[in-house]
Amino acid sequence: MSSALGRVAEVRSGPIDDAFATLVRRPDVISFAVGAPDPALLPGDLIASLAADAIAKYGSAALQYGLTQGFPPLLDQAGILLSNRGIGCRPEQLHIATGGSGALHNVCMALLAPGSVVLVETPTYGPAVKVFRSHGATVVAVESDDRGIMPDALDVALAQHDPAFVYLLPTFQNPTGRTMPTRRREQIAEVITRRGALVVEDDVYVDLRYWGESLPAFWSFAPEHTVYITSLSKTLAPALRIGIAVLTDNLREPVFALKQGIDMQTSAFNQAIAAEFLASPVGSAHLERVVAAYAAKLDTVVTALAKHFPAEFTWTVPDGGMFLWVDGPAGFDADALLGPALESGVAFLPGSAFFTDAAPRNAMRLSFAGAPLGEIDRGIAVLARLCELP
Ligand SMILES: Cc1ncc(COP(=O)(O)O)c(C=O)c1O
User: Fold this and answer.
1) Second label for 159, Cα 20 to 30 Å away, from 17, 40, 230, 307?
2) pLDDT single digits (tens) 207-242
3) Is the residue at 365 inside a domain?
4) DSSP string computed for 244-303
């Protein structure tokens, strides 16, 4: 598996890529499948005006090659954004990557080699597992509950596997929507610190909070032992490909050196737009609009599930993010339902796409972000009818 060709098997398109491909051809489908922003909330006019501001303000620097670490005005804004999340890192730890995905890949390039182990919670974000495996790593799932990865199980797994890192999604997790409470963050930080291990915290949904109090990032409980990754994809626009990372000191040099070989740096123009977005009050006004719109969608989905779904089904009600997780009864087969659902005009992702091994087939991940508000009730009703079939 260590040759490049051997590793291609690990990055072949999976259910999420397949869902994207199908949905592009089927605009009629009410999609609860992918974690992409609502197209109606992608702010074209705002981005056009921020782009004009960026050129006026930064001139040729916005169009030139730049520092691999990141465009300095965006690094400054990122520092302010993160300190509001309890992340008091030093400026030199910050890095602007090509999306959260780029940040994750850069960190993997520096940390993983064939034979490395990555520990993950279960279920976990499937595309990240593909990335880890594409670097030759073995991915080991650690027992998790509705508060995230479990401290005792993690302790045992760390001793057993000596992993390169532990990949965690503590806030509005993709795929379940669950959030790790403060107490669990403290317990996990204690285990990680005692074992001298490293966490990669993936936090791309944190700004989409609809209710409840904000929690400090996991990073703030174990700053020396955490690489933090976030992104503007879910709040501004995925196409700008702006990811932000906080690197541990030993990672800066290898990450920048390796990224140079890939794309030199993330687009300075896009970084300049992002810097203007974060600096400007129109940026916060946009975020408020986005949060209000998704909160209404989540509310509508939850109401529709209660109204239409058979009594044997249960679901998570997250405080934020884009996903909820529906568990069906033992005999329910979400994988087998996907084809008929698409034929009936609705899409979702089977929960099995988010397990590394021994995947249960009776769960579904529903994203409430993309479907138009007015179609959510109808879509959930169609899905519920299919779930009732013998
Ligand atoms: C958990 C998680 N991490 C990372 C990403 C990638 O985000 P980006 O668009 O910033 O690469 C996603 C996108 O769906 C995600 O759900």
Assistant:
1) 230
2) 999 999 999 999 999 999 999 999 999 999 999 999
3) yes
4) EEE--HHHHHHHHHHHHHHHSSS-HHHHHHHHHHHHSHHHHHHHHHHHHHHHHHHHHHHH
